Amino acid sequence: MEAFRIALEQVLSIETILWVAVGEVLGIIIGALPGLTATMGIALLLPLSFQLPFAPGFGMLLAVYCGAVSGASIPAILLGIPGNPNALATVYDGTLMTAKGQASLALGSAVLASFIGGILSLLALVLFAPLVARFTLMFGPAEKAALALVGLAIIASISGDELAKGIATGALGLAIASFGVDPFTNSLRIPFPEVFRETPLATGVGLIPVLIGLYGVSQVFADLPRLSAAPGEVTLQRFTERFPSFRKLRSMWRIILESTGVGTLIGAIPGTGASIAVFIAYDRAKKITASGKHGLEPVGTGCVEGVFAPEVANNAVTGGALIPTLALGIPGDSSTAVLLGALLIKGILPGYQLFQQKMHLVYAVFLTLFLANLFMFLFQLKGIRWFARVIRIPLAYLLPIVLILSLIGAYAVSGQGFTTAVYDTAICLFFGLIGYLLKKGGYPVAPLVLGVILGGMLEENFRRAVKLAQGNYLVFFTKPIALTFILLAVFSVTLSLIQKRRAAKTMRPMKPTLP
Question: Which of 249, 309, 437, 504 is surrounded by the most beta carbons within 10 Å?
Fold first, then answer.
């Protein structure tokens, strides 16, 4: 209890509270701006944290982490543009709710879901950090490749009625992910002309410019014809509803618990990240709500359930990713890698001895993470009314703002010089055109993004697993965890197809009975 008292005194100081509040505001802003990620925000504020005592400095970085993950839902819901990959799955039901005049309810649901996911994952961090960390050590290349396969299997669920088109765009995403250099031999996959060999074009494409182009720039292209059209009515937003009712929350208990479990576990597996977690949680919620029973609305129709599942999951990743970071010294994702660097620079070595000899520092991390989640909830709740007013901005002003922010995000994300920044901006514009053409042709964009995100992870871990097994391709069926994931992927695809066939039968008109 002495260690907890020391940590409580440090965290409840005016200095710590102020710096956590500053970090939270900056994190929300960073998350809401397209292309700016939590990792970038933490890295930018890392030098400042060195000048502060441990609790204020590390608390500020944790607040940026939580704020950026949660803040990405704001443009995802209002504009259909995820601030970063964490909010990819929030776009679907979030934009549909905005179109219904429920932007305030969607934003409030996202904030509440973020808070619930963050607190429940913090509880898992406090209670099960060493246990979960040991379990995630069992994830080798074969298990990670099988997990990527589960992510790709979700294409069947998010493709709607156009499964063939979803598979086609998913395959395109996998091809884009393989563009560049071979991860093992470092040789160019495509024989570029000599003039291009020394340019960034030869190294492949980054996820963030692709993401901004497909969701941000493509939406600008799609909305351009509306500028010349007669102005329509702006959907009246209802600001009285900020949260779902308690009855609705109680009916979503299974969605909340499963999404928390998915986010915490996947966050604790090094090298995975929230992008997989949000889609798996969204897919599970879609299957849970498909029947429409227990007062649940079908996910994908513009409902609270479709916002809650991914937002609970992506914020549960924050606590989950800290589990191996603190217990083993292995970062769960890129953001916690920077946080690990902050710990090491402060002379704090994560692992068993940290929990045994410096428990007051561990308690300080737990308490500042709780404070960061609390501030995230309060600040975003206060801003809901103002956030929702974004969609009232006339289109003639809104489209240039979105385009400029998108290009700035693509330009700023590289951090590797002028040439690379210009290249990333060009990639963003190119994929904006690709996204526009896909949407116009009725092709879903999400499978392409999934392919880009998971392609590299699948290829690298698949090849590494086969090499370690000395060329035995059956290695994936000999490891229990990998086999479980493979069976789960098959089950997910099969269940999606069955549900779509049943839905098609119920929608099919009955033949009239002849007299």
Answer: 309
